[in-house]
Amino acid sequence: MRICLLTADPGHPLLAAVTGLLTPEHQVETLDPGAEGPGPDLSSLADVYLLKARTPRALALAALLEEHGAPVLNSAAATARCQDRVEMAAVARADGLPFAGTRFAATLGELAAEGGPAGPLVIKSRFSRRRDLVTRADSAVQLRELAADWPEEPVVVQEFTVNSGWDHKLWVVDGQLFAALRRSELAPDGRGPTLPLPVGELPASWTDAALRVGEVFGLEVYGVDLLDAGGGAPLIVDINAFPGIRGQAGAPEALAALVLRTAVSGRTGSAAERKVPQVSEK
Questions:
Q1: How many CA atoms lie within 13 A of 202 on its CB side?
Q2: How far apart are CA 148 and CA 172, in angstroms?
Q3: Rounded CA gap, 132 and 156, in Å?
Q4: Where is the ATP-grasp fold RimK-type domain (predicted)?
């Protein structure tokens, strides 16, 4: 089989481990979506493409490959749905997922102009990307400071949920669950270490919600950030297409198996599924 990694970082630990499992029996190559030069040879497509990138150029390239019949994990449309946090929240809540209440502000300046918040807020860049904004603001002063640093940033706003300060990270690869605890970047001391978390120790409502995300969003490799909203009730605060899943025993093997099965079956999405929502360059 020919497997192509759509990424600028083929040395990422997860991708490197999967490459090691697939070679030498299969050919693994890399295509950097951001590289200058001619695009892929559409007359000689790989058997499957792994979309480990989320820039507009990467999404456009993945959509082009799908239009020519190539299977892509995850699809361009599913990946795009996880880039726009406004659409993410709307899709999740429309299907009854326990997703945090989320509203949109065109800019941080507009949000700051509303005055002091009634309670602590979690503020995130509308468009998920590397080094995007994820922070907490408790006062009008903090909002004004954020607006000065990020004057034109479109954001989403969620009410802060009191929690232990630990994020529950759930990852899913082809229906197989992996989990860890990570000190939240919103905690007073900032982000800390990632600790192992046996999936069997999670409440069934949590694992059910995580698996349901894949069905709702059309994802096969993804991550779900969960908080305990009280009494063990899960609250989803973010969803990520094709996350790193570092240090999770069995994850590379699950991904390698999914890649080969997809290459053999040659699955492609429907025309509606291949329609990619617009994602900002910001």
A1: 25
A2: 38
A3: 12
A4: 120-247
